[in-house]
Amino acid sequence: MKKEFFNYISYLLILILFYVLLPLGIKDTGSGMFILIGLLPILVFLLSIVFGIKHRVQWHFSVLVALLWIPFIYIYFNDSAMMYAAIYGVLSLVGQWIGSLTNRR
What we know:
Helix 1 runs antiparallel to helix 2. The chain has one domain. It has helices at residues 2-21, 29-55, 59-76, 83-104. The chain is globular, with a radius of gyration of 14 Å. It is mainly α.
């Protein structure tokens, strides 16, 4: 498990940068919705595809993607953004699966 965590760390740092920097660009409701349901899911999905290509499907990574979102809910948003933790976790799992399929070819 320790070795797996070190495989995850670079991806998790990139993810944390997304979670920290993108909400800073929210100016109004429209830009907030664009970031929450447009930009962040796409970036999580693409990052997970790359992770899946290199490491196959690791459910631990998807759990970490979801859990890392939770502190930022309370920093930038409110409880209504909690559902995005599950959405980002599922998108991460799907992205890893697609990436692992690409790796087989």
